[in-house]
Amino acid sequence: MASGTSRDVIRRGLWVLGRAIREQPRIFAVAVAGSVLFGGLVIASAYVVGAVVGDVVVPAVEAGEVGTGTVALAAVALFGISVLRVVGIFGRRLGAGYMQFRLQAAYRRRVTRRYLDLPLAWHHRNATGTLLSNANSDVEAAWYPIAPLPFAVGTLVMLVGAVGSLFVTDWALALVGLAVFPALFALNVVYSRRMAPRQARAQRLRAEVSGIAHESFDGALVVKTMGREAQETARFAGRARELRDSLIAVGRLRGVFDPLLETLPSLGTLAVLVVGTVRLRQGAITVTELVSVAFLFTVLAFPVRAIGWVLAELPRSVAGWDRVSRVLDATGEMPYGEVTLDDAAGPATLAFDGVHFGYEPAEAHLPGTSVLGEVAFTVPAGRTVALVGPTGAGKSTIASLAVRLVDPDDGTVTLDGVDVRRLTAASLASTAALVAQVPFVFDDTVRANISLDRPGIDDEDVWAALRLAEADGFVAALPDGLDTMVGERGTSLSGGQRQRLTLARALAGRPRLLVLDDATSAVDPRVEAAILAGLRAPAPGQPAAASILVVAYRRATIALADEVIYLEQGRVLARGTHAELLATVPGYVDLVTAYEQAEQERAENRTYDEVAPLPTGLEIEVDR
Ligand SMILES: Nc1ncnc2c1ncn2[C@@H]1O[C@H](COP(=O)(O)OP(=O)(O)OP(=O)(O)O)[C@@H](O)[C@H]1O
Ligand SMILES: [Mg+2]
Q1: What is the DSSP string of 536-563?
Q2: What are 591-615's pLDDT values in tens digits?
Q3: Whose CA is nearest to atom 24 of ligand 1?
Q4: How confident is the model at residue 70 (pLDDT cuts 50, 70, 90)?
């Protein structure tokens, strides 16, 4: 957030601009060269106009005639200057545009790249709306002053040149210049200082408005079903009103200062005419010189505004930059190692050893909570291990640790005996695949959702994965098969269909360890068991494809596992086969029985898509 005094803001704003120049020095040089050319020609044009008036117009008025040669020369001079000015403007505009949009693109890329590198814990702390505005309007805001910057730099050079040429012409007129130009500059500085807090506030409100909008669209289902439309609209309207008021405050300030900035140079022209007439009488200057200087003040008025534009945008730029650099400088990414596992080595062995884990508190001063303690178990190569436990026991957390979405606070997670922290990102991704509790589907075709453009996955592989996920039937029945677009977040699919697509996506990468976090909860129980059975016993003649760690509830599914780990409050309470646990662990029996009852009620209410397909778009998701 923009903090400190407004002087601080200007200093920091100039620092941000310096950074931009360092990143795009050559384009900046082109733009400034164009701008300086323009500025020089503005001064030159003032003197040419003065000369034309003094040597062409005045003699014409006084004597009634001028040589055609002189007129032609004047015409050529004026035309030549105009052409060169066009070249200068072209160079400046083109350079400034290139610089601004290149920087925007580069920083958008950096910010979104950073989002992907930052750990889940960071994403939990940051709202999606904020991330969107960081990558979009904050990046834009940071580089807004780039557009007028070359113009402003050229103008500064021009002002120095103008004062110099004034001194060469006449010291009295130069003094007028020395009074007016710094006053213009000072007015611009005051303007931008007043603007600073207003711009920063507007920028913050922009992010908040987009955050609220994003949340209510994202949660449209909840908003509608809970009848919260009015409240959501009011919440949005309140913040939108604040943004409106803050933008009006910006406009009001502009309304006061813009005319002042416009008037000052005109007053300067007036002063020049007054002082100039006296000097002309004294014979200190000629008509040519007086006209030149008066004209100079008139044509300078506009370029001087460019300095004001830059200064006025600085606060917004600093506010945007602060928000962007908060992302770029965020720490806590998980560095990957150098070890690569053999992808062809058959099913992998997953082992947890003395793992402790706690989520970071939402705010730094709050205490963190311990979620897992001393968790140790192994999924031997080619085996299936079920993870069973009451809600909140830490099953999803274990799943995240297994594929290294998070790292343990203590203890180790190993794949084939190698600490997952020592693996490369690519090796980790090709070895272990997680099918998450909440399925995520991209707004793309079925094919793209499954292959994710990973190399070496052709349509045949996609169909094979769909078959394993028991999803080939419904995909084949879709109007365009693999080419069917599934809508944003898969809205055109049922919950169970979405789950099976994400399962097929994991399978298509042929992982050696499959982590299923309640990944088939919305699928008919019989189909769920069929999927797991299919995963455990691959096609005849093929070796077992993957080791499986499955978070499951249903008796039929759990019974397929070679071993069951029973978890309560982040501790492994018991392990053994399903039958053993049923015989020895009372909590386990209660849990499995309770699930079974709930399962029966659910089946009677026909909420599985397989049992009772609901009309597309109307289905209510049970598991979100
Ligand atoms: N991002 C998070 N930040 C803070 N605490 C979290 C976070 N995610 C989970 N927790 C907490 O960690 C504990 C374990 O959560 P976890 O999601 O692993 O449970 P689970 O066994 O998967 O539950 P369920 O069966 O409901 O899916 C819970 O107490 C939960 O509140
Ligand atoms: Mg969970």
Answers
A1: HS-STTSPP--EEEEE---HHHHHTSSE
A2: 888 877 877 777 676 555 544 343 3
A3: 391
A4: confident
pTM greater than 0.85: no
- Cα separation, 184 vs 174, whole angstroms: 15
Taking only the tens place, the pLDDT of each residue in 479-506 is: 888 999 887 777 778 888 999 999 999 9
Is 437 near ligand 1, meaning CB less than 6 Å away? Answer: yes
> Would you say 263 and 184 are in contact if contact means Cβ atoms under 8 Å apart?
no
Q: Quick check: CB of 396 below 6 Å from ligand 1?
A: yes
H or E element, residue 189:
helix 171-218
* pLDDT surpassing 60 at residue 539: no
The pLDDT value recorded for residue 619 is 35
Residue 576 has pLDDT above 70, yes or no: yes
Pocket test for ligand 1, best of 397, 398, 409, 434 (most atoms within 8 A of CB): 397
Closest CA to 446 of 409, 473, 406: 473
Enter the tokens of residue 396. Answer: 């999803």
Question: Ligand 2 being an ion, which residues bring their Cβ within 5 A of it?
Answer: 396, 437
Tell me, using a 6 A CB cutoff, whether residue 359 lines ligand 1: yes
Residue located via tokens 């309560």: 568
CA gap 566, 63 in Å, rounded: 111
C-alpha–C-alpha distance, residues 582 and 571, integer Å: 18
The position carrying tokens 């990558």 is 135
Please work out whether the CB of residue 124 comes within 6 Å of at least one atom of ligand 1. yes
Cβ 373 under 6 angstroms from ligand 1: no
Helix (H, G, I), strand (E, B) or coil at 598: helix
Q: What is the pLDDT of residues 364-374, one digit of tens each?
A: 677 777 899 99
Q: Which atom, in ligand 1's list, is nearest to the CA of 397?
A: 18
8 A C-beta contact, residue 129 and residue 213: yes
